[in-house]
Amino acid sequence: MRNILRRSHRETGPVIETGASSGDAAEEHPDIVHVDLEQLDAETREMYRQAVTAAEEDAKEETKRQRTLREFVVRSPFQLGFVLTLGALTAILVGQMIGQLSTIIMYVVGALFIALALEPVVRWLERHNVKRPLGIAIVFASFLLIVGGILAVVIPMIANQVATLVRTAPSYFNGITGEEWYLSLKERFGSYIDFDGLISMGQDFVGKPENWAQVAGGVWQAGVGIANGLTAALIVLILSLYFLASLQATKRAFYSLTPRSNRVRVIDITEQITKSVGGYVNGIVILALINAVCGFIMMTIVKVPFAGLVAVGVFLLALIPLFGSVLATVLVAGVALFESPTAAIIAAVYYLVYMQLEAYLLTPRIMNRVVSVPGALVVIGALAGGTLLGLLGALISIPVTAMILMIIKQVWVPRQEQL
To answer: What is the superkingdom listed in this entry's lineage (predicted)?
Structure first.
């Protein structure tokens, strides 16, 4: 087989393409995307070139070998059964270990996503003659300052509004009973629904401080939860710094574990995956931030109660793919109902319009260049991820689904067409 390396300029920049003879038709498949060598560090670039040479030599040897079918004969059924049983027990043990380590796995995944999100900025600084260690220090320090600044503004606001909510919640329920829209609903549907009973239950619940402690899981449990959350955040930040500092070396170590003749495809796909994941994390955070800021401005104009607290909830919900915006709409409209039905309608209409603008204007500009997943698979991936790993699973469902599609498209499909 003869390899032809040529430079081509596509949307992603100059890349290396590998052309092959008919003996390796999969390499010529149009869906295969090769890595941009200019985006790799010097050591990985040399590893890639050596892998290209090794693939060429392996392809030459492959043309000399004929495919043969080997008859499967069970010579020692007891030994075979023992090996299969041992393999099944090992798989069960590994599954149990993964279940026990699920919290640590979530920390690692979260830290890895943060590192991949910051990696493009570090590379940008490297291209502008900034040494990688200095670039990592600048990017990570800036990240901490931005997060710390946001928390310094948001946490006092949340604390004040939560205290106000606990103090004034009973008055909101008392005020509802005198609203015209409530009286109209009671007149039309009062024979089917006991509105006064529901209001009374709500007043009793919010009027007793012990119920608020119960919702929070008790003072001690709430304190432990806050401490655990801060500890988890600190662990994730430390891990993300380590991952960011050793990301290139970690990828090279992973590449070295694969056969050199197959290393080209592994490097190609891994670089695409890491770039897509980093871009996705940046994109989803930007979209959620835009959603929360615009929603806060709207809620302030409409005078929705506790606009700052609700905006934080909108930001967290907007991180959830597909369902987040719908849940945010329900949250804002429900809280706005305590102000007036008009405010609730305005909030609902605003979010219906915003979701259309986000879907057709913001998302294509921010996200479509990074990941492209069919809508049906987004739903399936979000449901599966949420079921397996909760909120974190829902957050990472789209990049994981895109990763699986990329592997199928660039590895499985070309091989099937070659057979």
So the answer is: Bacteria
Q: How far apart are CA 398 and CA 374, in angstroms?
A: 10
Per DSSP, helices labelled H in 177-218 are 180-189, 195-207, 209-215
Q: In this predicted model, what pLDDT tens digit does every residue of 208-223 receive, in sequence order? A: 555 555 544 444 454 5
172 pLDDT exceeds 70?
no
Q: What are phi and psi of 366, to 5 degrees?
A: -95, -40
Strands (E) in 202-355, as ranges, are none
Largest CA distance in the chain: 89
Q: Supply 169's token pair.
A: 């919640």
The span from the CA of 84 to the CA of 80, in Å, is 6
For residue 8, what are the β-bridge partners?
15
Q: What is the pTM of this model?
A: 0.67
Write the DSSP assignment of 2-42 as a string of letters: --EEEEEEETTEEEEEEE--GGGGGGG-TT-----GGGS-H
Helix (H, G, I), strand (E, B) or coil at 103: helix
Q: Which residues is 14 bridged to in the sheet?
A: 9
Tell me the sheet residues that pair with 16. Answer: 7
- Do 322 and 379 meet the contact criterion of CB atoms below 8 Å apart? yes
Tokens standing for 353? 């319009």
Q: 10 Å Cβ neighbour count for 400?
A: 17
CA distances for 44 relative to 40, 133, 234, angstroms: 6, 18, 31
**Least reliable range by pLDDT among 175-189, 348-362, 404-418:** 175-189
Domains of the chain, residue spans:
4-64, 98-257
Please tell me the distance from the alpha carbon of residue 304 to that of residue 165, in angstroms, as a whole number: 13
As a residue count, the chain comes to 419
